[in-house]
Amino acid sequence: MDAAEFRKRGKEMVDYVADYLEKIEKRQVFPDVEPGYLRPLIADCAPQDPESFEDVFKDVEKIIMPGVTHWHSPYFFAYFPSASSFPALLADMLCGGIGCVGFSWAASPACTELETVMLDWLGKMINLPEEFLAGKDGQGGGVIQGSASEATLMALLAARTKTIRQVQSEKPELTEAEIMGRLVAYASDQAHSSVERAALIGAVKIKNVPSDDTFSVCGSALKKVLAEDKAAGLIPFFFCATLGTTSCCSFDKLLELGPICNKENIWMHIDAAYAGSAFICPEFRHLLNGVEFADSYNFNPHKWLLVNFDCSAMWVKKRSDLIGAFKLEPLYLQHHHQESELLPAVPLQRWPLTRALLSGLQHWQIPLGRRFRSLKLWFVLRMYGVKGLQEHIRKHIRLSHQFEHLVLQDERFEICAEVVLGLVCFRLKGSNELNEALLKSINDAKKIHLVPCHLREKFVLRFAICSRTVESAHVKFAWQHISQLATDLLKTWQQNHHQQ
């Protein structure tokens, strides 16, 4: 394919994607395929001779689309949103065209500098304390990770290294292995499974802190667990607070937890993967109060800020804690603009930002290579503006309250957790088996798509407002569909119970 054909085929692909997204609600939201459907449809080996674009392209509808779950359908209410917008898609195309691997400033100056500035933009949009921004005194800063899971892992590993060094400075007789064996991380019993996975990768113990009746962790619960573990000779070093839990969008009490972590010298990381986007709206910013006590903070623009996957924003108060845990700089990655060489020649007032730019973003992440992901943020933030993004968030929240109202009008159902943002947790009053059967009937019908969760011992259905194009009519249709399926199910359920 030469440049001339690329122009032609590129236009065709843009038309195809635009048509796909414009007409997506006509497609069945969940596919009619079974595991292994795809292999019989494609050759066993790669072709020896080149195939035409036409041949490849026609197989998209024939082979790929039949197995796609349409996350951007207005009838998709599962998981949490996976953001997308036309500006983000165009920026991603440009990212692929530039094709840089921006691990250092020299590897692609624009890649490093735009990311640093975009994370400052984002931080200001949610009113993060200035300590987290690169533009103030240069101690903190932001970086784009691939996911919230990566952000949590990076924070935990940095906290582990910092704690080991601190303990060894106080008790040099202890080996690293001895200290590692006593380290303990903590998270809510409602925290995402990625926190536990981070502890597994980091080879440290992790304990769940019990949440209260609102599925939130409070200060007294953390104090109790810390006292028990310290009495047992363990070393608490990391706590992951969650704002907007996956199960029910509950919020840990930062204003109680933060001072405890600071007093006990425990790294507090905040995972706000979904909910964090809402903090650009002043009426929801209070949910982030207490972030000033945190060492690191993360949320996913790729969930709710119309930036397509992957784009997970992470900030640290002291980037030296992060870089100090991972910095390796072989000769082939060094360049003549290294921080130590350049700073004496830089005007004093520019030192903070220059340090942030030249610290090398490869030291802020697990992999070396990194894509030019900040282009997506740059396009979306400029083309929607803060006001446009705020309206997108507020629309989703209005729709979630519409669904909540519909549920509350039906005495057969109950709401299982406070509806704060765009997630509604609900269930039929009755057994878990009854609700499992309802969910199965919903997803078997394939008109809408939902996923469940467990809240304590209850099997609960989650209704998440996801699509950029979802409207009130889609929510109303979804509820009518659920209500009718519930009627049919209860009739059958009662008949079977009567026969028994």
UniProtKB/TrEMBL annotation:
Recorded metabolic or biological pathway in which this protein acts: Catecholamine biosynthesis; dopamine biosynthesis; dopamine from L-tyrosine: step 2/2
MF term (GO), any: pyridoxal phosphate binding
Cofactor requirement: pyridoxal 5'-phosphate
Gene3D superfamilies membership: Aspartate Aminotransferase, domain 1, dopa decarboxylase, N-terminal domain, Type I PLP-dependent aspartate aminotransferase-like (Major domain)
Pfam (any one): Pyridoxal_deC
The EC number(s) this enzyme carries: 4.1.1.28
Modified sites of kind N6-(pyridoxal phosphate)lysine: K303
GO annotations of cellular component type: cytoplasm
One GO BP: carboxylic acid metabolic process
InterPro entries reported in the protein's UniProt record: Aromatic_deC, PyrdxlP-dep_de-COase, PyrdxlP-dep_Trfase, PyrdxlP-dep_Trfase_major, PyrdxlP-dep_Trfase_small, Pyridoxal-P_BS
Keyword terms of this UniProt record: Catecholamine biosynthesis, Decarboxylase, Lyase, Pyridoxal phosphate
Domain of life: Eukaryota
Uppermost EC category: lyase
Transmembrane segments: none
Signal peptide limits: none
PANTHER family registered for this protein in UniProt: AROMATIC-L-AMINO-ACID DECARBOXYLASE, GROUP II PYRIDOXAL-5-PHOSPHATE DECARBOXYLASE
Subunit field text: Homodimer.
Family recorded in the similarity comment: Belongs to the group II decarboxylase family.
Protein name: Aromatic-L-amino-acid decarboxylase
Highest classification ranks of the organism: Eukaryota, Metazoa, Chordata, Craniata, Vertebrata
Gene name as annotated: Ddc
